[in-house]
Design brief:
heterodimer; A: alpha+beta; 2 domains; 13% strand; B: alpha/beta; Rossmann fold; seven-stranded mixed sheet; three-stranded antiparallel sheet
Chain lengths: 393, 310
């Protein structure tokens, strides 16, 4: 008597929690619990990924999420995102100008010499991916010495602080001044951005909804679809006009004076890509002009480069580039109709959220007895009908 | 940093939005109302849509029943119930269908007929029945608006041509109030007739797909079918045409789970609805009766959908 094994799960569920927590500590006496500062600094890029996909800029809770999820990025981003549901949205910042970023890295693949100069910063781009055996047994002394050495050497070799500007101009500005880019849509500034946390996506959606969705999308999902666009399901080789990483001041009106005041800063990665221009006359579309053309004084369309924009919390370069490529692709798709999956807003935007996709994938592990019973009923019935037919022949 | 959560976990603005969307869903039977759908602390696909409805609508002093696959004790039901208990102080829970004001369910509607003062929330993975014939939501919205379900009917027809039988096993497309066709969630066909003229309000919530829709009380719900190929529920007859009974309570009128007895290696059947099974067990012991059986559908109060020019 009694129900099948999987029913009666209360205690079993408790058991999964305790064994999951036990595994964290399995290393034994020599182990030290991870502290959240360590995660933020030594697992910097993992932390960036989670804060970006979680969609809340809360470095400490992002570290905690990584710790409790035992390093699973999807799970950690999920914990952070669920925390977000409990918090009301109190204020909106005005649009922030990323020209004001305190830059830690800034490159352009379009020009060798950009105003302000290329600034490589911290990257693995040019590393030989060889095992660094010296890190296997790193002593605390050696570890601390790294930071000390870096500061002392820097003053000897680097350019004096006085030469480094506080902010850098945007590479795109120069292209725009030459008339190679579509002019900025001045009305966009006055339109309220679409808030994906307060409104569901009902297609067609404005570009701001697409950008917001991609900004907290799962990096691997974005990359996969962007890659399809790069290597054949799409025909454009984009050029990275500028990729910048740094800290963006967040401004809010002062509660008394109303004056815009800096309330803190967020680390972000931003990427702008340009791609080959579109043919003349292909840019007119009902409901306004789309990127890819600019009107001269006589109202004639002139060919220009097309643009793609990507930005996200944290230091996530692959994500920002993928997003910029997809932004360009989606704009093309909205204009001319999608020619491949990466240009289809529904295909891209409804499949890149990690919390949605991992949740649904995970749910397949839940019991499906009832529906499977129903499936078997259909299969048996159709098989039987088939048998009956064969017998009569 | 302590994490103390508001009543019902969600912030007040989020709950208000769910309530407004619910009102709209009730006002337009079968219409999928889009809502923003917050992330819940359990996986998308584990009932986050149903959960947001429950957390937004459930009030102090009300009694809740949570079931999954018909059982109050399956892992997911246990998990959801304890989360709701944790975040909604002052509510009561029960496993008895009769005692519940509010039922959240995955994949089943209880065998016990629901009353006017009860409400059932169904968890929905795919809210749109048209998704099998049209992947674009934008285009599906137009089809729904025009009540154009011809492609679904063609799919049913193709099934009959290929297999001599409609092969949709669960999530059976059902027309509500003569217009919108809904995906009634992955309930078996067995439960579809319970939607028709239901005394209780039926709410359906899809968290991942961000939709809420409803079958209001006393509303017509007709499974899509043809005049000459009626809608049929699951068949629980054995090789001799005898209706199988639950090995636990002896009931011959309930939806049965089929499994293999690990000791004898034989296939056995048991009520999927555990509360129903318990009640039948005690009732049949007390009265010495075995409940009667009917599994041929349709009952007389549902009209069949007739395709023009068949």
């Amino acid at each position: 008597m009694g129900y099948v094994a999987i029913k009666g799960g209360g205690e079993a569920i408790e058991g999964t929690k305790t064994v999951f927590d036990y595994l964290r500590t399995r290393q034994g006496d020599t182990a030290k619990p991870l502290d959240t500062d360590t995660i933020e600094h030594q697992l910097r890029l993992l932390h960036s990924r989670v804060i970006s996909e979680g969609g809340v800029y809360h470095p400490r809770l992002a570290s905690l999420a990584i710790k409790q999820a035992q390093g699973d990025t999807l799970e950690a981003a999920f914990v952070l995102r669920a925390y977000r549901s409990t918090q009301p949205r109190l204020v909106e910042t005005p649009a922030l100008n990323t020209e004001n970023m305190r830059i830690t890295r800034r490159i352009s693949a379009a020009f060798k010499d950009i105003p302000g100069g290329q600034m490589l910063g911290a990257t693995t781009d040019y590393h030989l991916r060889l095992m660094r055996m010296d890190l296997l047994d790193e002593s605390p002394e050696r570890f601390c010495a790294v930071a000390k050495e870096w500061f002392t050497k820097k003053t000897e070799t680097d350019i004096p602080d006085s030469v480094i500007p506080d902010t850098f101009p945007k590479v795109l500005e120069s292209l725009r001044n030459e008339g190679l880019l579509p002019s900025v849509d001045g009305t966009a500034r006055n339109r309220d951005p679409f808030d994906i946390t307060r409104e569901p996506l009902i297609f067609p959606v404005p570009r701001s909804a697409a950008l917001a969705t991609m900004a907290r999308a799962e990096q691997g999902s974005l990359l996969a679809i962007a890659y399809s666009n790069m290597r054949g399901y799409g025909d454009v080789h984009p050029t990275v006009a500028e990729l910048r990483v740094g800290y963006l001041p967040v401004m809010l009106p002062h509660p008394i004076t109303g004056e815009l005041t800096e309330i803190g800063e967020v680390e972000i990665t931003e990427c702008e890509v340009v791609a080959m221009y579109e043919e003349q006359g292909s840019s007119s579309v009902a409901g306004g002009r789309m990127p890819g053309a600019t009107e001269d004084e006589e109202g004639n369309d002139k060919p220009t480069f097309t643009l793609g924009y990507g930005a996200c919390f944290g230091h996530n370069e692959v994500k920002a580039i993928s997003m910029a490529i997809l932004d360009r692709a989606l704009q093309a798709g909205m204009k001319n109709g999608p020619r491949n999956p990466s240009e289809d807003p529904e295909f891209v935007l409804l499949h890149v959220d990690g919390i949605d996709s991992m949740g649904f994938c995970t749910h397949y592990k839940m019991p499906h007895y009832v529906t499977f019973q129903s499936d078997m009923d259909r299969l048996r019935t159709t098989q039987q009908k088939q048998n009956n037919k064969e017998q009569t022949i | 940093m302590s994490a103390s959560y508001p009543f019902g976990f969600l912030n007040e603005y989020a709950k208000k939005e769910v309530r407004r969307s619910t009102l709209k869903a009730v006002a337009i039977p079968g219409y999928q109302v889009p809502y923003s759908s917050r992330e819940m602390p359990m996986g998308r696909g584990f009932g986050t849509g149903g959960l947001q409805l429950t957390l937004s609508l459930l009030g102090k002093g009300e009694t809740l029943k949570v079931i999954d696959q018909g059982s109050d004790d399956s892992v997911n039901a246990v998990n959801l119930r304890s989360f709701i208990e944790m975040t909604c102080e002052g509510i009561n829970t029960t496993t008895k269908t009769d005692e519940a004001d509010f039922i959240q369910s995955r994949h089943r509607i209880p065998e016990t007929a629901l009353r006017e003062d009860q409400l059932i929330v169904l968890q929905v993975p795919y809210p749109d029945p048209l998704v099998v014939v049209e992947p674009s939501e934008d285009k599906r919205k137009i089809l729904h608006g025009e009540a154009d379900y011809s492609r679904l009917l063609v799919k049913l027809y193709e099934d009959i041509v290929k297999f001599d039988e409609i092969t949709i096993s669960h999530r059976y497309p059902t027309r509500i109030n003569g217009h919108y066709v809904i995906d009634p969630s992955p309930i078996p066909r067995w439960d579809v007739p319970k939607l028709n003229q239901s005394k209780a309000l039926i709410l359906l919530g899809a968290g991942r797909e961000k939709k809420i829709y409803a079958v209001p009380p006393y509303t017509k719900a007709e499974p899509l079918a043809f005049e000459d190929v009626p809608f049929r529920v699951e068949n629980f007859s054995d090789e001799n045409g005898q209706r199988r009974s639950c090995q636990r309570c002896g009931c011959t009128s309930s939806f049965l789970d089929e499994f293999v007895d690990s000791k004898t290696g034989k296939k056995v059947y048991q009520c999927s609805d555990s509360d129903w099974c318990d009640a039948q067990g005690s009732a049949s012991v007390a009265e010495g009766r075995t409940p009667g059986a009917t599994d041929e559908y349709p009952p007389t109060n549902i009209e069949q959908v007739v395709v023009a020019n068949g």
